[in-house]
Write a structure and sequence with these properties.
With 487 residues, this protein is α/β, with parallel strands linked by helices. It has 17 helices and 26 strands. 50% of the residues are buried.
């Protein structure tokens, strides 16, 4: 039990009705999870407004209610706190409730359109390799030191987030590496957290179904850096045209990294093969098993962050040479007859272009690239034709197929994608709605030495259709088909 007055940020309070010194057992913003003596925070969400459930929360035993608008009926046994922004207040309350855990370890956040998962995952692995206990909060999986926790969102809600950070502190973790999504910034999921450092990878076309405009999407990413404390560092990729925009108002100490320009940390791709690439990092050559310029940026961000955290340069470079790809990020499967299939999470035009260009840089002229790609349902529709056009322009053959259609009809999504294919490209594009059949067709069409790219789902082991998640793993499907066809 914690006193309400001890976890309420005083500067947020507009009006208080009742006893602020009462004790609460927990905080929740879901009226269905209200327990006796809890504090219910009414959040105005995208799907529903928590203010409509205040009476239900009080009936279930909530002793305190935090809201932006006081209800018409006030219970004598309940304390009501009116604030200007309840989602912002929730973040600060959750942090206080769990004893401000983010200030008890070194919390590093990364934001950007692409590269977040690879960067935080490898940072987590390397910190543990160097003997430190660490936590990971990512799209794929969360870790509290060596204990795996399921990941449902790129960035958890404030209560889950602070609970896990508290568990990390209690387990002795000294570092936590986390992805910071644009949604989490706008929805104040990271409010109240104290970051040691922030990383910007890049920003391209994505999530416009939520943010509506690119300017709003950029603004959301930038706000993360605007709110970093003075003693933190802000590491930014200046090869992205918005790299310096991100940090122009930050109070944190700014550092830069680049593959093309003068920067605090620099890297150059010396040579690339399907087995890996040679990098020159700050004048030292390093062989890595990761592929592509996009991974060169990821590795440079990792190197830069670890140096800023005080790790020895030679130790970091040695560790990078041993790093292995993250699940679903440029993973490949080879058939008995010499066909290579690459599985990658690329689900934006820029990410897809990066992966295809990487393959094209490595493959020889007599090898063909067959790309299997779709687009998610109930998400940004404007990127669909762009992704199809990118795939068609840069591949020898394209099979458009279903991704996670969610509550849309797969055929409608594919119609949107085909709008980006002009007459000159249409002859090398076919459409197969069933994803398994699309992958099978790609395998049947592939000749020895050809490369198949299956893009969009990466690490995901399901396909979401009409609200139901059906088991589906691209890498698993490819392996099964290769074995059955003996190709």
């Amino acid at each position: 039990m914690v006193k309400l007055s001890e976890i309420l940020p005083k500067q947020h309070i507009v009006e208080a009705v009742g006893d602020e010194s009462l004790e609460v057992s927990e905080i929740t913003f879901d009226s269905r999870k209200v327990a006796p003596n809890s504090c219910f925070v009414a959040i105005r969400g995208t799907q529903s407004d928590g203010h409509h459930f205040i009476a239900k929360a009080v009936e279930a035993g909530a002793r305190a209610v935090v809201c932006e608008e006081l209800p018409p009926e006030i219970s004598a046994n309940t304390t009501y706190i009116k604030v200007t922004d309840s989602s912002l207040t929730l973040g600060h309350m959750a942090s206080a409730f769990y004893g401000f855990p983010s200030g008890k370890l070194k919390l590093i956040g990364i934001t950007g359109t692409n590269g977040k998962t690879t960067t935080v995952t490898l940072l987590y692995r390397l910190a543990r390799r160097f003997g430190h206990k660490a936590g990971l909060l990512s799209t794929v999986v969360n870790y509290i030191d060596d204990v795996e926790m399921p990941a449902t969102h790129t960035t958890p809600d404030p209560i889950q987030l602070n609970r896990m950070l508290r568990q990390m502190v209690d387990k002795g973790c000294t570092y936590c590496f986390m992805e910071v999504s644009s949604h989490s910034v706008v929805q104040n999921r990271i409010a109240g957290l104290r970051f040691t450092g922030g990383i910007f990878s890049n920003i391209t076309h994505d999530h416009l179904d939520y943010h509506k405009t690119f300017a709003e999407y950029l603004k959301a990413k930038k706000r993360f850096f605007d709110e970093l404390p003075e003693e933190a560092f802000a590491l930014t990729n200046i090869d992205d045209r918005n790299g310096l925009v991100m940090v122009q108002n930050t109070r944190a100490k700014v550092y830069t990294y680049s593959l093309r320009s003068m920067a605090d940390f620099r890297c150059k791709v010396v040579e690339s093969h399907f087995d890996g690439m040679m990098l020159n990092v700050d004048g030292v050559e390093v062989w890595t098993r990761l592929l592509g310029r996009f991974n060169a940026y990821n590795l440079l961000a990792i190197y830069s962050t670890l140096i800023l955290l005080g790790f020895e340069r030679n130790d970091v470079l040695t560790a990078l040479s041993d790093a292995t790809p993250v699940s679903g990020r440029f993973e490949y499967v080879r058939s008995a007859s010499g066909v290579t299939a690459v599985v990658d999470y690329a689900h934006t035009p820029d990410a897809l272009e990066n992966v295809i260009k990487t393959i094209n840089e490595i493959k020889t002229d007599d090898q063909r690239l067959i790309t299997v790609v779709g687009a998610g349902g109930n998400r940004d529709k404007s990127k669909r034709p762009v992704m199809a056009r990118v795939a068609a322009e840069l591949s020898d053959l394209v099979i458009l197929t279903s991704d996670n259609p969610r509550f849309e009809e797969p055929e409608d999504i594919l119609t949107d994608m085909k709008a980006g294919i002009d007459a000159t490209l249409s002859k090398k594009v076919i459409t197969i709605v069933d994803r398994r059949e699309a992958i099978r067709t790609a395998c049947l069409l592939a000749l020895k030495g050809d490369i198949i790219l299956v893009a969009g789902k990466g690490h995901e082991n399901y396909q979401e259709i009409k609200g139901v998640k059906h088991h589906f793993d691209d890498k698993e499907v490819l392996t099964e088909i290769f074995n059955s066809l003996q190709v």
